[in-house]
Amino acid sequence: MTPPDKNQCQAKKTAGYNFMTLGGRVGEMVRCTNKPIVIATEAKLGTDDQFGSMSLCAECLNAFIEQTPKGYAIFSDPKDLPGT
After folding, report:
1. Do residues 32 and 9 lie in contact, with contact meaning Cβ atoms separated by under 8 Å?
2. Which residues lie across from 73 on neighbouring strands?
3. Average pLDDT, integer, range 64-73
4. Which of 69, 59, 39 is nearest to 51 (CA)?
5. Element holding 29 (H helix, E strand)
6. Above 60 in pLDDT, residue 82?
């Protein structure tokens, strides 16, 4: 998890290319371009003794919830970031 971006989702997902498509690399990961709806912050200190956080759009939030254990992160509104 990285410092949050209030303007763009920070999740990475596959570019949508596969061996059947022309162009792109198989398995290439690109940053999501959607507008974030939440900031996810780790509920417990990471191995670096810090709380990581990142912005997520609705689609990526659903994937995040499915892929992480319950209680892994707490969620806040991007409008709560300083300077917004």
Report:
1. yes
2. 42
3. 95
4. 39
5. strand 29-31
6. yes
pLDDT tens string 57-67: 999 999 999 99
Q: Could you report the per-residue pLDDT of 34-57, keeping only the tens digit for each?
A: 999 999 999 998 888 988 899 999
Beta bridge mates, 12: 31
**Count of beta carbons in the 10 Å neighbourhood of residue 51:** 14
Q: Cα(51)–Cα(73) distance, rounded to whole angstroms?
A: 10
Q: In the chain, which residue ranges form alpha helices assigned H by DSSP?
A: 58-67
- 8 A C-beta contact, residue 43 and residue 74: yes
Residue type, 2: T
> Nearest-CA neighbor of 52 among 74, 35, 67, 70?
74
Q: Is residue 53 a contact partner of residue 44, using CB atoms and an 8 Å limit? A: no
